[in-house]
Amino acid sequence: MPPVVAAPPPPAYTNPVGKMLHDVRRERAAEVPFPAGDTRFSMARTMRFTRDPLGLLLDAYERYGPVFTLRIFHSNVVFMLGPEANHYMLVSHARNFTWRDGHMGDLMPFLGDGLLTIDGPFHRASRMAMLPMFHRERIVAMQELMVQEVDAALETWQDGQRLDLYAWTRDLALRIAMRALFGIDPEHHRGRIDAAHEFETALGYWSKDYVLQILRGPGSPWSRMLQARSRLDEIVYGEIARRRRTGRRGEDLLSLLLDAQDGDGVELTDRNIRDEVMTLLFAGHDTTTSTIAFLFHELARHPELAEAPGFDLDLAVEETLRMYPPAWIGPRRSVQTFELHGVTVPGGVPVEYSSWASHHLPDVWDEPAAFRPQRFAPEARERLPKGAYVPFGGGSRTCIGMRFGQAEIGIIARRILGRFRLDLEPGYVLRVRQSPTIGPRDGLPVRLRAAAPAAGTGSAPVLAA
Ligand code: HEM
C-alpha cells in the first residue's frame, strides 16, 4: 500500500487583498536586488500580460536576456527563459522552488490541496498514491473507452456542418476524464448539472482582468466561480459518498484513493480525495481540449500537410505543443537566493518559467512562428538542447497525465482525420486567452468536410499493448 501523509499543508492566502499585502511584505524583505527589468508599476504592462504575454516576454528577453524582472500588477516577478533556465528550475534545482507559494496557489479556492498546489512530502506521497493509475498498461486499457467516447461524439457529424470544435472537444474530454479516471458517468447528472459548463464558468474567473478578480459579492466573477464549484462538488462528493456506502470499487483513480492508507492505516479524507479529483479533472480536460483546437487550427491553415503521403500526426501534435503549450507558465516561489547566467535572484520571490516563450526564442528555434512538424523528426529532435522543449514540464513533477493526454489527443485527432477535414469559418482570427491555460478565446468555429482518411490515421490505438 502506498504511504499517505494524512496532514495536508496549512492553508495559504487566498483572499486577494491579504495576499497582495503579504506579497508586498515579502518583496520588501528580499535580501538582494531583483534582476534587471521593468520594475515600476504599470497598468499597461499588467494588461499586456493578460492579453499578450508571449509578446511581452519575448520583448523583455531581447532587452534583458534570459533572466529578468517584470512588475505585474502589484508584484515583481522574475522570469527565466530558455533551455538552461528550464532545466535549472525543473530538474537540477527544482527543490529550490515551491508551487503552493507561487501563483499556482491562486487556483486553491477551486482546486484545494491537489497535486498542482502542494509541495514536499505531502506532494510526494500523493503523487506516489496516484502513479499506478498512469502506468502505460493502464493507459493502454483506457484507450478502448476513449475510442468509444470519441466515436459516439462523432456520430452526429455530417459533411458541411458547422460547429465549435473547442466546445465539442471540451465536452468530450471531460466525459473521458470523468469515466476513465473516476468511473463517473456524466450522463447520470446531465439535465441537472452540465459539468463541462460548470468547469468553464469556474475557470473563467482566472481569465478575467486582475481588477475584476478582486471584486466580491453577488454577480461578481468570484461568486460565479463559487457557485460552479459547489455544483461540481455535488457530483464529486456524491460519488465519494456512494462508493463509501456501497463499497463499490473499479479500475479507476477514485477507487485507488478511497483505498489508500499509510503504514498506520490512516486513510485520505473526503476533502483530500475531492481536491485530487478536481485537480485531475481540471488538468485532464482543459489541456487536451486546447491542444486539439490549436492542432486543427494549424492543419486548417496548412491544408497540404494532412494530404501529404508521409503525414505524421504525432509530429504535428508535438509541433502544436511547441507553438501552443496549454500549461504555458510554471509559477513558483524561490526558497533561497540563487544565481543563473551570472544574474542573482533573491529567495522568497515569485519566479516563473514559460514553455510558451521558451518555445519561441529565435536563438533556439529556426523561424519559431512557423508551423513545421518536421522539427520533431528524430534526427532534428536529437539536435535540440536539453530543456528547450518542455510542454509537459520536467523532472520529478513532470505532468502525471502526459501519456493519458497524448493517447487521448492521438485518438481524437485520428478519428476525426479518418473521415473529415476541418475548415476555419471565413474571417476567423485566432485570439489566445492565457489563463489558467492558453486556449482559443472565441472557440474554434469550423465547417466539416467529408474526406478520405489522412495518412497514418487508420488504426485507433495510439499506445500499443
Ligand atoms: C496536452 C496535454 C497536457 C499538457 C500539455 C500538460 C502539461 C503539464 C505541465 C507543463 C505540467 C507541469 C507544470 C509546471 O511545471 O508548472 C503539468 C502538470 C500536471 N498535469 Fe498535465 N498536461 C496535460 C495533460 C494532463 C492530463 C490529461 C492530466 C490528468 C489526467 C494532467 C495532470 C497533471 C497534474 C496532476 C500535474 C501536476 C503534477 C505534479 O505536480 O506532480 N495533465 N501538466
TrEMBL record:
<keyword id="KW-0560">Oxidoreductase</keyword>
<dbReference type="GO" id="GO:0005506">
    <property type="term" value="F:iron ion binding"/>
</dbReference>
<dbReference type="Pfam" id="PF00067">
    <property type="entry name" value="p450"/>
</dbReference>
<keyword id="KW-0503">Monooxygenase</keyword>
<keyword id="KW-0479">Metal-binding</keyword>
<keyword id="KW-0349">Heme</keyword>
<dbReference type="InterPro" id="IPR017972">
    <property type="entry name" value="Cyt_P450_CS"/>
</dbReference>
<dbReference type="GO" id="GO:0016705">
    <property type="term" value="F:oxidoreductase activity, acting on paired donors, with incorporation or reduction of molecular oxygen"/>
</dbReference>
<dbReference type="GO" id="GO:0004497">
    <property type="term" value="F:monooxygenase activity"/>
</dbReference>
<keyword id="KW-0408">Iron</keyword>
<dbReference type="InterPro" id="IPR002401">
    <property type="entry name" value="Cyt_P450_E_grp-I"/>
</dbReference>
<comment type="similarity">
    <text>Belongs to the cytochrome P450 family.</text>
</comment>
<dbReference type="InterPro" id="IPR050121">
    <property type="entry name" value="Cytochrome_P450_monoxygenase"/>
</dbReference>
<dbReference type="GO" id="GO:0020037">
    <property type="term" value="F:heme binding"/>
</dbReference>
<feature type="binding site" description="axial binding residue">
    <location>
        <position position="399"/>
    </location>
    <ligand>
        <name>heme</name>
    </ligand>
</feature>
<protein>
    <submittedName>
        <fullName>Cytochrome P450</fullName>
    </submittedName>
</protein>
<dbReference type="InterPro" id="IPR036396">
    <property type="entry name" value="Cyt_P450_sf"/>
</dbReference>
<dbReference type="InterPro" id="IPR001128">
    <property type="entry name" value="Cyt_P450"/>
</dbReference>
